[in-house]
Amino acid sequence: MTTPDEKALRQRYEELKRLIHYHNYRYYVLNDPIISDYEYDQLMRELKAIEEAHPEWVTPDSPTQRAGAPPAEGFRKVRHPAPILSLANVFNDEELEAWLERLIRLDPRVRDADFTVEPKIDGLTVVLHYHNGVFTLGATRGDGEVGEDITANLRTVRSLPLRIPVRPDGPPPPPRLVVRGEAFMTRADFEALNERLRQQGQRTFANPRNAAAGSLRQLDPKVTAERPLRLLCYQIVVYEGPNPPRTQWEVLRTLEALGFPVVEADLCPDLECVKAVYRKWLARRDTWPYDLDGVVIKINDLELQRSLGVVGKDPRGMVAYKFPAQEVTTTLLDIRVNVGRTGVLTPYAILEPVEIGGVIVRKATLHNFAYIREKDIRIGDRVIVRRAGDVIPYIVGPVISARTGKERIYEPPTHCPVCGAPVEKVEGEVALYCINAACPAQLSRNIEHFASREAMDIEGLGRKIAEQLVAAKVVGDVGDLYYLTVDDLLPLEGFGPKKAANLIAAIQASKDRPLERLIYGLGIRGVGAVTARLLAERYEDLDALSRATVDELTAIEGIGPVTARFIVDWFQRDRNRKVLEKLRRAGVWPKSRLRQAEAETKPLAGLTFVITGTLPGLTREEAKAWLEAHGAKVTNSVSRKTSYLIVGENPGSKLAKAQALGVPTLTWDEVLALVQRREQEMKKSEMATRNGGQP
Ligand code: IVH
Asked: What is the dihedral of CA 465, 471, 476, 482, to 10 degrees?
């Protein structure tokens, strides 16, 4: 017997499942959430509480069930309900036109056909089965006839609907539906994943596609759940129900209405439009968040498409118009080594010249020596080189099957190739360093960095001139730049009186660059432009920064202990102290503008808050905005750097964590009192300064 209470709870349970699916969809499919993360967490928490009390209610379509148990013995084979076909390719406009002409000869109706043009995502086909709207099976393509059952892994993909309709206003699902889509990873997610794997000492992936494939074929869905897989759908393989779509355009709109993430498509009346859409995607390719390898052109009318038939495994009525390759193979002729400004040695490849996307490539980066070893890259190997957009070409890996036995294993250098000093490996790092601080390669790279646009922005001072200055020994460090005279420069090759005077003027003009740029320009290890800014927000000038301790630096949100140590070490070194003295004497000694601006006006400046529980009369967002407006930083998790934990009603686990770390807690009323007190103190000290120190 169910009691009335239980009935109400059951209703609430079903409602919660629907709500959470809907909010997942708003977030992962539409990228348009309508509730805060906090509210979402509350719904999830409520759902979990009900499921704990009633485990017998839990169904596989519950949002809590995305990562289930691993399959007992590998992946089961599944036969597809219809062949999962592939696509023929064309590589230029002529081949595209020839494709269409062939079709017109086969069926004159094609002359009047329109087309959809979709981006071709470089991922993996997945086949998704739904019975009465419930996701029941997901498979890989396999050989097109039989794939593998990866249902448990696909369930972890957040944008995949576990139950249709997802939207409250969505149409009812057809009783049977099989959808085809592409599973993939964005480039940013791929980089982050590789970084995480590297830190855990695990094997990394060569590209986003391999990462997506590896993640989908994980035996443990819990691992897949931590992999940032995405999904976009583009085809209906089976539709059993009323009103089946009759065009590809209707397919996409139907899928969209049912709540699937769908590829972005254009509808084109003729080939001119198709070519324009191809060029649009080609232009976007480098900046697009995920890899595209072309566009897919489909005859819009599904009946016409079907009647055109299939050649081999390729339907005639569709074609992939591929982008020029970004990866080619060539021979690795030699490995050479570059010395950077911190002394780090970076290997690079000398290649048999090869064209990639219209550019001749002769060199490519090899990242670091560990990379060469991990990928087993040998001199003389056939290698895959990739060049995409603005990224420096790099070696993806060797083609092992092309080995002849004549390839040579590469040994990393034991001495700096520029100055001959011994090289060293720093504990916990993969890089090798030249330990000679006076190494000309390091000096000139340092000067080049100091003068670069994001740093002191000295016009005309690039790599070549930096090398000249160091080689002629007129500059030994960045401090010397400000003492250069026209006479120092005239003997250098290519310098006339005008060029010399211009460079001196450009150097002098850089004297009043803001503190954050100077800090960045010093080239302290671990201090990029963002960290430099954090330092300039906190310290008045280089004097103040040079007195900073590791503890003080790590207390700054965004600075970790390793960087803090690098900063302190940098300021302790004699060589660097001399540089600072030269800068000070030359008048290159800016005061922080960022620090003053903040300190003067904001009562909570320098404090970091975390909120837990419900605050009286205001939402989490409102509280956060208010705190930030008063100069505070608000973060999501409690750490040693948290100044205070603000505790509302029904606090969560953050409270225990704060207590464990000794982070003090405040109620909202106490926060208000704190602001009042600080504002009064600030007023007092302001008056004191105005009255010449008299209170
Ligand atoms: S349609 C009958 N549309 O490209 C062929 N495929 O090279 C149906 N792909 O196996 C495929 N984006 O994995 C189609 N918008 C798109 C696509 C797409 C990526 C992949 C798919 C297919 C491969 C063929």
From this structure: -40
Probe residue for ligand 1, chosen from 120, 127, 231 as the CB with the greatest number of ligand atoms within 8 Å: 120
* CA 10 to centroid of ligand 1, rounded, Å: 42
Encode pLDDT of 371-408 as tens digits: 999 889 999 999 999 887 667 899 989 988 889 999 99
What's the whole-number mean pLDDT along residues 508-523?
Answer: 96
Cα 265 → chain centroid:
25
Q: What is the largest CA-CA distance in the chain?
A: 100
Contacts of 373 (CB under 8 A, 6+ apart): none
426 pLDDT more than 80? no
d(CA 514, CA 593): 7
Q: What is the full DSSP assignment across 469-497?
A: HHHTTS-SSGGGGGG--HHHHTTSTT--H
In whole angstroms, give the CA distance from residue 547 to residue 536: 14
Say yes or no to pLDDT of 667 above 50: yes
**pLDDT above 80: residue 140:** yes
Instruction: Give the bridge partners for 178, in sequence order.
Output: 129, 238
Q: 120 CA distance to ligand 1 centroid (A)?
A: 6
Which atom of ligand 1 is nearest to 141's Cα?
Answer: 10
pLDDT at 66 over 90: no
pLDDT for residue 695 = 38
Here the tokens at position 551 are 């503890």
Average of per-residue pLDDT across 335-342: 92
Radius of gyration of the chain (CA): 31
* Rounded CA separation 197/179 (Å): 32
Ligand 1 atom index nearest CA of 263: 15
Which 8-state DSSP code applies to residue 149?
B
Which residues make beta-bridge pairs with 338?
346
Residue 259 falls in which region: left (phi positive, over 0), alpha (psi -120 to 50) or beta: left
Task: Quote the pLDDT of residue 694.
Answer: 43
Nearest to 393 by CA among 360, 365, 367, 414: 365
pLDDT at 391: 73
Contact present, 415 and 423 (Cβ < 8 Å)? yes
Q: Where are the domains of the chain?
A: 4-58, 89-322, 327-425, 440-512, 515-595, 602-690
Task: Indicate the DSSP class of residue 34.
Answer: S
Which CATH number fits the domain 4-58, given the four candidates 2.60.40.1120, 3.40.50.1370, 1.10.760.10, 1.10.287.610? Answer: 1.10.287.610
**Separation CA 330–CA 377 (nearest Å):** 13
Query: Would the pTM count as exceeding 0.85?
Result: no
Q: Angle at which helices 463-471 and 440-451 pack, to 10 degrees?
A: 140
